[in-house]
Write a structure and sequence with these properties.
With 282 residues, the protein is α/β, with parallel strands linked by helices. Helix content is 42%, strand content 13%. The longest helix has 22 residues.
Length: 282
């Protein structure tokens, strides 16, 4: 069982990542805040607890791989990579500029990024291929793929899910960021796919559910998934779009919204206040 101090530390890291994302978006710029914030705790768990990666061994054949299939949430991944020292903090202020390293979607030019993503539905296919290659090499590494819930409407994703089950790809764990809101509104009103747990189980996957804003619950699900043999595993993360900033929570306007100066300052105030409370409890 994970210690209480570890959980508190991961919560603090998640809040720091949210502040980093806010810095990357800046004032009067469009940025994918909503889907980045719903993943903050999961990214904190993966990068600061589970993933076996190193900035000094970028090409280690036995490193774990993380594929952010919902590539529009790249800002939260960039924040984690920056905090891990994969590139200088100065890059955060150059996000989505011609002079900067960090672009709107993941690119292989960025240290620590394993695949180009952004066109939804393709990340799982990439992950399945990587996992099969690692198995052929007898590598102990695992592959993790993070998908969105709106992404579940993509056909290629389901072809990949069948392939993973057919080939018993048990060194692969996928996640669904079930934040229930996509670019244009509630997911269930746009392309409803009910009973995701039963659907994925029917496709041959071992399925777990977790509170996506509780590091202890995420860790438990990841560890259970890692112990599964003979089939791929999926963790459905019950999350809130825009988690951490009250006016953005569950609000499709902040899928890729613009923060004016007042909204930016209010968001920063909320995040800093929450982080201060978290640190006071540590």
């Amino acid at each position: 069982m994970v210690s209480e101090s570890t959980v508190k530390e991961l919560n603090s890291i998640a809040q720091k990542l949210r502040v980093d994302v806010l810095e990357m978006i800046g004032i009067n710029n469009a940025g994918h805040l909503g889907g980045s914030y719903s993943l903050a705790e999961t990214i904190a768990v993966l990068y600061f607890y589970r993933l076996k990666i190193s900035k000094n061994k970028l090409n280690d054949p036995n490193r774990d791989r993380l594929i952010l299939s919902k590539g529009h949430a790249a800002l939260i991944q960039y924040a984690a990579l920056c905090e891990k020292g994969f590139f200088p903090r100065e890059e955060l202020k150059r996000t989505k500029t011609l002079k900067g390293l960090l672009q709107g979607h993941p690119d292989l030019s960025i240290p620590g990024i394993e695949a180009v993503t952004g066109s939804l539905g393709q990340g799982l296919s990439v992950g399945v291929g990587m996992a099969l290659a690692l198995r052929l090499d007898k590598s102990p590494a695992r592959v993790f793929v993070i998908m969105g819930d709106g992404e579940q409407s993509e056909g290629q994703l389901w072809e990949a899910s069948q392939a993973a089950a057919a080939h018993k790809v048990d060194n692969l764990t996928a996640f669904i960021d079930w934040n229930k809101v996509q670019a244009m509104g509630p997911t269930k009103e746009i392309f409803n796919i009910p009973n995701l747990d039963r659907k994925w189980a029917a496709f041959g996957w071992e399925v777990f559910k977790a509170d996506g804003h509780n590091p202890a619950a995420i860790i438990e699900a990841v560890e259970k998934a890692g112990a599964i043999k003979g089939k791929p595993s999926l963790v459905i993360l019950d999350t809130i779009k825009g988690k951490g900033v009250s006016f953005a929570e569950g609000n499709a306007a902040y899928h890729n919204g613009i923060l004016d100066e007042a909204a930016y300052n209010n968001a920063l105030k909320e995040l800093e206040s929450a982080n201060a409370v978290t640190k006071a409890r540590m």
